[in-house]
Amino acid sequence: MYTAFFGLTEAPFSIVPSARFLFLSDRHREALNHMLAGLADGGGFGLLTGEVGTGKTTVLRALLSKLGEDTQVAVVLNPALSAHELLESICDELGLPASPKDSYKALTDRLYAHLKQNDQAGKHTLLLVDEAQHLLPDVLEQLRLLTNLETDQRKLLKVVLVGQPELQQLLQQPGLRQLAQRITSRYHLLPLTETEVAAYVRFRLEQVGCAQPVFTPAALKTLARVCHGIPRQINLVCDKAMQLACRDSRQQIAPEHIRQASELALGWAVPQPVSTPAAGQRHWRWVIAGLLAPVLVASGYYGAGWLTENKLGVVIQAPAVVDLESGEATPSAETLAARASAEQEKRWQQLLAMQPDERGAMQRLYQLWGYEVTPNLANCLSSQRIGLVCQKREGDLAELSQINRPAVLPLTLEDGTTDYAVLYALWPGEAELMLGDERVRVSRAWLQARWQQQYTLMWRPPMGESSSIRYGQQGSRVAWLDRQLNRLLGEPGGVSRQFDQDVLEKLRRFQRAQGLYPDGIAGPMTLMVLDTALGLPGPVLHQQYRTDAEPAHELGPVAFLPMPKLTTEALPDLIQTGYSPSGDAQPERSASDSTPDDQWPELAETPVEYDSARDSSWDLDNLDLSELSPELASRLHQAISATDQPKGQGPSLIDSHMLEKSARDETQAPAEDELMSVEQLPVRLQKQLPAIDLQTHIYSSSANSRWIKVNGREVYEGDEIAPGLILEQIGPRKVVLDFRNQRFEMAALSQWPAG
Fold first, then answer.
1. Residues facing 236 on adjacent strands
2. Domains 26-189 and 672-752 fall in the same CATH topology
3. Strand partners, 746
């Protein structure tokens, strides 16, 4: 063993639970506090879920250590029991006699008498059920019936169910809805973060007397990535990595040790893609080539050449030449090419087996813009906090090339699964994608065959406002648009704050030049193309450098490239980049533009107080009414037309308070207590609403840990469930949704059929 080599008292990464190695991360502490708070309020059921190896048993042991002598605990570790066997096990744990011959009534009466005795003695009774996802529905119903044992003040038995996420789906069955409604405390345990992984490893080493830093910082980062923050996998990989370092006589563990250890310890856990009948022989050749090509090439068997020629397009002309005296093979150039293509195929299959999801792709997109976000914040809603706009559209590569910003693309693969990639760069005939932690170059034909023309990208709107700029509006955004059009079109004229016919014609000229529909409206697409034309800061697809690599079609469908170094440096301020009319990027004012700067308070870097002496009245003929609804604008026009009295010579017919109230009614969403249910939505919206199946409901006191599973997909607050349907908020027993700017609520674990 490596303990003597590193000077340790014992192996630090044993997977056997031990009180010495009890490490509580922030999320483990939160789960523990959540469970304790739920048990203290006298409620019936508590629920703790988490993926395999995330530390649910650790929280369970910590929970037991926090309970005092006034609590009697019964623990069921093997819940694969019948309802009668469960009652027997509970009686055994509480020290009560029980046998298979006892009836349900006898066992229940015996338990009830014991629970009342504990209550009268001032003691609580707690039942902990581990691996509860294996419980049968009738056993869960028996547990619910046990919680019916109560006095006038409180429940006599409290139950904590601990299990994998499948437990949530089990509790959705209609026959168990009464039990689901009695769960007063829920918590879903997430994996460790990268910082917590490093702290976890250091803690384990300190417990066995390790004084020196065995794992380098780079190794710890690699460890967090390959183990996905799951403590059990961390233990397996660290134990194997220390064995490898001991074998190499290395006192420090490097990233290559972690990668090799993960292949040895976790290789069995990598799922293989499942072929559908429609995939045909082509998909199976990929799998066979990845598994058998290295073995066949090493033995000189010509079969590897057949696989490579038919699958990847590389022709094998001659087998390897073997030196009979030394027994060593001298591979030919064709053999080396086949070996490289087989290794690349294996690497590609391992990448696809990881199934890169949309949340990971959104994290990468934020990184390209210079921001680090956690998985639960990797959504469109978070972009508003950093001055970006998240745009979901349908289009083609020509449109993305015109916008020139990275985008998240859903890819449908041969086996029918959907992976998410970030379009990182575009070249003639080829594209670069970021899939998981890999960067690959593919042909445009390969991408077009798997991409369904949908994309999500982020861009930075001028002055932080992404709404359209159109004819009749006025103000600083119109001035910004006119200034940039003058700059791009070479117009010498001054800058106008009024969107008049002159600005309209310039905008149409720009749209025609860019191949856009010349509607004369500066909508999101026009503003994004304008953003590109101005060369404003942000990541771009048409990069000025190209990483050397073989063309994608030479060695198969993809060519792997080194990942770029992504810096988390926020974008420069709006004023400094040309997104605001006062920025340094604005063109110099022409001599004909005689309007002094002090007449444009909206464009100054600092707010300018309103000067009543300079402007003591409204210019009612030039009010900007474009943001009002047609009804409200019509009423305002009627009010203006109804009065021609000079100022101060009579009462105004425009009631400003009524106007403000009407504007609020038009734009503001209803308050929380005024939320309607889905059944109260207008019939028109009900018919348009897509199907909603709320399958899992995880509520936590921390907003970052809340999520639900809806329509078979995990979503967080701010995510889009379906086109136009946004998950706005997750409450303890309900969710708040937004469909086409209409907010409504639904009960947890409920359903709504389409149409």
1. none
2. no
3. 735
Spatial separation of the C-alpha atoms in residues 544 and 563, rounded to whole Å: 16
β-strands 430-435, 418-427 pairing: antiparallel
**CA distance to 156, 248, 262, 560, 567, per residue, from 256 (Å):** 55, 12, 10, 19, 24
**N-to-C CA span, the chain:** 65
Q: Scanning the structure block, which residue is given the tokens 């403590």?
A: 231
Kindly report the CATH class assigned to 3-15+193-267.
mainly alpha
Q: Is 742 helix (H, G, I), strand (E, B) or coil?
A: strand
Residue type, 49: T
State the pairing for strand pair 45-50/71-76. Answer: unpaired
- The pTM of the full predicted model, rounded to 2 decimals, is 0.41
The two counts, helices (H) then strands (E), for the chain are: 25, 23
Q: Which two tokens stand for residue 571?
A: 């974008």
CA distance 680 to 744: 9
Give residue limits of the domains in the chain: 3-15+193-267, 26-189, 281-319+331-353, 672-752
Binned average pLDDT, 10 residues per bin, the chain of 755 residues: 82 77 79 75 75 83 81 84 88 89 89 88 87 85 82 80 83 77 79 89 88 87 90 91 88 90 72 37 44 44 39 38 48 68 70 77 90 82 82 89 92 83 89 88 89 90 82 88 89 86 91 88 90 84 59 55 66 52 39 34 31 39 51 57 45 39 40 72 88 83 75 85 89 88 88 82
CATH 3.40.50.300 describes domain 26-189? yes
CATH 2.30.30 describes domain 672-752: yes
Six-digit token string for 225: 């990535």
